[in-house]
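User: Can you predict the 3D structure for this chain?
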Amino acid sequence: MASNSKDRSESVEVGQSSSSIPNGENALDGNKNLLHDPSKFLCGVVEGFYGRPWTAEQRKELFGKMKRWGMTSYLYAPKDDYKHRAYWRELYTVEEAEHLTSLIRTAHQHGITFIYGLSPGMDITYSSQKEIAALKRKLDQVSQFGCTSFALLFDDIDPEMREEDKQVFQSFAHAQVTVTNEMNEHLSRPQFLFCPTQYCATRAIPTVSGSEYLRTIGSKLAPNIDIMWTGPKVVSKVLTIEAIEELREVLKRPPVIWDNLHANDYDQKRLYMGPYSGRSVELKSRLRGVLTNPNCEYGVNFVAIRTLAHWAQCQRDGEPQRPQTDIRLETESEEGSEPQQVPPDVYHPRHALRMALREWLPEFNKARTAPSVLQQRVLTITPGALEGPAPVPIPGINTCMATTSTVTTETASVPAGTVKQLQAIAEEQIIKAEEVPGVTGPVLNSLADNEKIVVPNPPGELPEQPSAESESVPPEPMECNSVPAATPALASNEPEKPTAAASGEPMSVEPAAVRQPEMQVEPEGAGAATTTDSPSSVTMSVEDEEEEEEDLTEDDLLVMTDLFYLPFDHGAAGHRVLKDFQWLKTNCNLVAPYAKAGKGAQEPLPPEVREWYDRAEAFDAMSKRVTRLLKRLFLCENRSLLYDLYPYIWDMECVLSQLNGYRLLPLDNANELMANKSPEHPLTKVHLVRPYRHTDEAAVRGIWSDCSSDRHPSFQQYPELSADRWVAPFLTMQPEHILVLEDDDEVVVGFVAAAPDAHQLSRQVRMAWLDELRTKYPMPKTSPELRSPAENCIAALHNDDTLDAPAAVLERYKGCLQLAVQPSVADASLLKRLVACALAALRTSGCFGAHVRVPCGDMAARERLMNVTFMPIDSVEGGEYVYYGRNF
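Assistant: Here is the predicted structure, written as structure tokens:
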């Protein structure tokens, strides 16, 4: 069914000029009957995001859900499907045609209108007869597949016309209207949608009411063609009746809302699972329809789509309910608390969320296959994406040429000494579109059989699978510049203070981290204190009684959606996490005196200190709750849904565990340690960062021996030598600055040993421990030329010049550290998170730079340091050691 070169060279006369465009003055009147017929209201889904399209199986499953929920329409418009946008002129092959025909037939069987969208605006020449012929040929082909509804999309394109078009058309709007009207007439005026280049109020030049482009579209576009609109912004927090009324006047018809509320293709770290909100039910009478453009990950969109369907069926808005005593932060949801009772015809977002979660829960127990590895999105920046009126996205994925394969990207090995090292190591990858020659990335096809594997449901980790080419995903949906950060900083808000709060000071000691008893500062007998020996002795809420339950619960899903809510709102749990951590960090100085002096054993704690401990315990409970959610999620039978959710829940669990393990202060120059790539396969092991205990010494030494390069046979005579030289000074002199990584079996699998002042550590070693060490390892009697590697190591202990780092190193990197993680640990991000906690601990002690001394031949240690963005210090050259450093 593919056309040959001769077919493509054929042209068709464009017999319609801009002056012959049908007048649309009465378009609004012609659509009035639609507003009073609920069956004609377009309510459904637009698959219009950038990135990997959904599979045919997922789309067919979606049609079934939409039918049950009373939805009517599906718009096929995946930005990176090969022949939708980048190669819109190309006809579908026989295989692709069969799959697209099957999709259209399935949609019709479920009573869903399948709207085929095409995006020719990137490179079309509007005045070219050949281009018009190609467009007609493509739409005719799809029409033969049984499609009866169409859409032309001109979003995210360069608004400047080619020179040849300027000779024919009065304006850009006239060119688009001419082509659209001709396609409409060619297809005998079917249901037709049009997406303008100025698709939101912020893109209207100069304003919605003053835009000549929009007024031309409204007055000249054929009356039966519906116009799409995203609202005041690309991602709109609220759609108001007043704004829609103004738009209706300009477009001379009610708009169809292309709703990006749940779109997440502009940020690979964000996911939106909150309810449909910010749109009054009263808008329905002023709209032609609403199509939601949701998350890239199909499985996570249950709540987004289900709550839209619920909204469309309601007749009244519910009133937000919030206690009068609440103090709402800027980022807190405006939906209020869930009311006790809601009539069936009333839409309340929080109530709709609860209903959707109740329906979603069984989906986790349906057996579904999963891709070979976790799919991860890579953010692409296009020219003008961050500024200017109309960016030109360049697709990074072809999706209609071969079978689908999905992989995560790997961090490349990086040579030392260049600026690109840090960029290559950072896991959040940004690909500049100007560096992408045309269409790049693996060729994918959402209209062909997907290559999948069946993933069993083992109690342990998933087996490793071979990876294919890495994928590159383009930009945001219609360029979503207006969305705020996912977790806006709370520093600009006035944090809550206890009744006797003092001014915030740098945190010099670890507060009562409930999960880490060794750094407990709460005096004995003070409320629900933990013991100093057992990390499991924490007094917790009733949720701990459910620890052994493996099945997901509705409350688990509520916590998950609260943490990944909406672009402008956090759910209740997410808001509480932010507020509690900000408060704990700001007021940590309140508990420091009690930890240092050991007060409180025979006297009650002041109310403000008691409050600190209560909030720390609540934060710990939430951290454990998310950990439990991650473990339960892994056991669900729906592996496809697991693979969609896992990267986000994994990242959230790691961050909360890290914050809970140490009240982390901001690190100005260490943000990349917090941005990590999730494992390629879900892992059941959950790790904890905690302070070092004296009982961990053997484990720390063993880890160092496993990772050290000191494995020459000569070291067998001195099995403790390597650890004594490199790690024991920290264990003996400054154990309070050591953090260990412990798995959920309470086995130590990694550590970071740090000292805020390397010169002071050397002085302590000389005064209190060096003589003992030299007695244990006498100076070798053999000549230097004949010494073994172990004897050279011993000789270095007897050389005072090797104890201190060079002055050039200490001047910029005052602190020092050593680190290692067992080679068996599969999650490469754990060492980075461990180092982030250690650097935060050094910062609280007044240290803002640290170094590591490594033997020149220890390539494993050097690679380990590069992975946590420690760079070689160029000012120190020669000798048997190399120094790595970084500031933070």
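The first helix runs from residue 5 to 9. The chain has three domains: 5-321+330-365, 517-673, 688-887.
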